[in-house]
Design brief:
The chain has helices at about 15-30, 60-70, 90-100, 115-120, 135-140, 145-150, 185-190, 215-220, 240-245, 255-260, 260-270, 280-285, 295-300, 330-340, 340-355, 360-370, and strands at about 1-5, 35-40, 45, 50-55, 75-80, 85-90, 105, 125-130, 155, 175-180, 195-200, 235-240, 250-255, 275, 305-310, 320-325. With about 375 residues, the chain is an alpha/beta fold.
Length: about 375
């Protein structure tokens, strides 16, 4: 089967975002499918070297190529710049590929245009990695935005409770099916020993969906005093108020530096003792059931994860290797549990990754639902 995957590697040129698309491509290929990566958002790319949004897409296109090339996918991509110019495979090649494609997977809005070549692919799927925000945006959106989502045959989301009575997120006439981020387990097997700190990589506040006011800053402040209540050390890779976090003992580092490439991002995670993951307020308040692709990578690396409960605990095993928290007291208890038998929690972390997030199984299940 021929599959077109639309992603946002160049639009958000950082390691974690790159892995999201890359692991879909790897899983699809392992299942025997022929893949093409497409990015067609109509937006300019962000250039972290110059800290600016740039008309020149070369930083993003270079990252796409350098990330895909080690997996023999270096010729399997195209990027459509804001001005309509094609980079990587040309427009005619992309049209020919799409004419023979069976499935179009749009991950996180990797394409915001219904060009004829995409629309004519027999099965079209949108995969929502930002639950609550996406559905609220649709509920408030202009007609063109709603019609855009109507163009898909199936809608999937990382919010396991979206569309159920457990979550307050409005879905209107749309049906959202749950899925998880697929993980390339062999790419995350850690060959380096863990460090001594609980870590995470996070965005303090995004510029998107500002009317929702549901960013991570609202939740993290509830846990700001934690370092003063435990001997456990933390390191937070964050593009936020580093001075404030440092004052409270969090040892912040620049998120962009540790996420410059997929390999930098992986190295940071694997040098961690465990993850301490705080969720965005919208995920928590809506009981969305969102579960982080980043946390999945910690688990696949054999690093335990202590993460805020958004309702995901209704769907995934937890208590060993993966622990849920709601309050600061839960966090302190979870830290003690992990440190009291670290080897056990390492082992269970890896088992959860294999049982729940193996890329081939996740993608095979999604395809079965989409085409079945």
């Amino acid at each position: 089967m021929k599959v077109v995957l639309a992603g946002i590697i160049a639009r958000y040129p950082f390691g974690g975002v790159t892995w999201c698309s890359l692991m879909y491509l790897l899983a699809l290929r392992e299942l025997g499918h022929d893949v093409l990566y497409v990015e067609d958002t109509g937006e300019c790319v962000y250039d972290p070297v110059h800290n600016t949004v740039s008309l020149d897409p070369s930083y993003g296109t270079t990252l796409i190529h350098q990330s895909l090339e080690p997996f023999d996918l270096g010729e399997r991509w195209t990027f459509v710049n804001y001005d309509g110019s094609y980079h990587g495979r040309g427009a005619e090649e992309v049209c020919r590929w799409c004419a023979e494609a069976d499935l179009f997977l749009n991950l996180s809005g990797g394409c915001w245009f219904w060009r004829d070549e995409y629309r004519n692919i027999p099965s079209k799927v949108f995969i929502d990695s930002d639950p609550a925000f996406t559905q609220l945006a649709i509920a408030k959106a202009e007609p063109w935005y709603v019609e855009y989502f109507r163009g898909f045959d199936h809608l999937f989301t990382f919010g396991a409770n979206i569309g159920t009575t457990t979550s307050t997120v409005p879905t209107g006439d749309f049906r959202w099916r749950k899925t998880w981020q697929p993980v390339a387990l062999d790419q995350w097997h850690a060959t380096i020993p863990p460090g001594d700190r609980f870590t995470s990589v996070m965005t303090w506040k995004t510029e998107s969906f500002t009317d929702v006011n549901g960013n991570k800053d609202r939740e993290f402040l509830r846990f700001l005093e934690l370092p003063g209540r435990t001997t456990q050390r933390f390191r937070m890779a964050v593009n936020g108020p580093q001075e404030l976090l440092a004052e409270h003992g969090w040892d912040p580092v620049d998120a962009m530096d540790v996420s410059r490439t997929p390999w930098d991002y992986r190295r940071f995670i694997q040098r961690s003792r465990a993850e301490l993951g705080v969720a965005k307020h919208a995920y928590v308040a809506s009981r969305s059931g969102w579960f982080s692709d980043r946390t999945q990578c910690y688990l696949a690396s054999g690093r335990p994860a202590l993460v805020q409960d958004t309702g995901w605990s209704d769907h995934l095993p937890h208590g060993d290797g993966l622990l849920a928290f709601t309050t600061p007291e839960d966090v302190l208890e979870g830290i003690d549990r992990i440190n009291s038998d670290y080897a056990r929690h390492q082992r269970y972390a890896g088992e959860i990754a294999r049982d729940c997030f193996d890329g081939r199984r996740v993608v095979a299940r999604l395809i079965e639902e989409a085409l079945g």
